[in-house]
Design goal:
Elements lengths: L5 E4 L9 H10 L4 E7 L11 H10 L3 E7 L7 H7 L3 E5 L6 H10 L3 E6 L17 E5 L14 H14 L5 E5 L7 H6 L4 E4 L1 H4 L4 H10 L2
Parallel strand pairs: 1-8, 2-3, 3-4, 4-5, 5-6, 6-7, 7-8
The site of fe (ii) ion has 6 residues, from strand 2.
Length: 219
């Protein structure tokens, strides 16, 4: 996969009345992925959008569809998200009793497999699956809402994760999600991030394409 910083605008912060135009903006931009946050009101205290919205977005999207499941029992929906158009399917470690099985299921359906960690979850929990996964999504806010502030303890955690990945010669990309701005992007990349998810920073900007370019070039 691309080793330059990948920017993944989070559609959660888009104007839902203009969703087609927002996806076209991402298509024109230097973003590599389009991040789609699915919330069930159980695993997280919020409900966002689901399979019908992703199916519609996929018809227009030219970027990698990066689906972040903040739901309980993700194994019950993996096939439906594949059909909807997910290229990468990320499940939360905290929501999976059988994480290894869930990763194998995602890969057997032909998607890249991601595992997300809440801010309090140590990276060591991934030790026995790190060689099997394509993406580790490190939550840098508590999941459930856009527009929160970046949790600074994420930076040492990213360095620990980078070391774990190297130790196991894993190809997993490190994706960081929540509270990313043009001002803090460089230190997050320096700590090990390969992929920066950004919702409000992109979609609230007067020139979102310029912000995506700035995030991509942050060093
Ligand atoms: O998964 C989540 C929130 O749970 C994120 O993907 C947010 O959508 C990021 O939004 P910002 O913090 O960048 O506004
Ligand atoms: Fe997300």
């Amino acid at each position: 996969m691309d080793k330059n910083t990948i920017v993944a605008p989070s559609l959660l912060a888009a104007n839902f009345l203009e969703i087609g135009k927002e996806v076209e903006m991402v298509n024109r931009s230097e973003a590599g992925w389009l991040h789609l946050d699915v919330m069930d009101g159980q695993f997280v205290p919020n409900i966002s959008f689901g399979i019908p919205v992703i199916t519609a977005v996929k018809k227009l999207a030219k970027k990698v569809c990066d689906v972040h499941l903040m739901i309980e029992h993700p194994e019950q929906y993996a096939e439906a998200f594949k059909k909807a158009g997910a290229d990468i399917l990320t499940v939360h470690a905290e929501a999976c009793v059988h994480l290894h099985r869930n990763i194998q299921q995602i890969k057997s359906l032909g998607m890249k497999a991601g595992v997300a960690l809440n801010p309090h979850t140590p990276v060591q929990i991934l030790e026995n699956v790190i060689s099997d996964i394509d993406v580790v999504l490190v939550m840098s806010v508590n999941p459930g809402f856009g527009g929160q502030s970046f949790i600074p303890q994420t930076l040492p955690k990213l360095r620990q994760l980078k070391a774990l990945i190297q130790q196991h010669q894993s190809q997993a990309l490190i994706e960081v999600d929540g509270g990313i701005t043009v001002a803090n992007a460089a230190e997050i990349v320096a700590a090990g991030a390969d992929v920066l998810v950004a919702g409000n920073t992109v979609f609230s900007a007067p020139d979102p394409e310029a912000v995506i370019r700035q995030l991509r070039n942050a060093k």
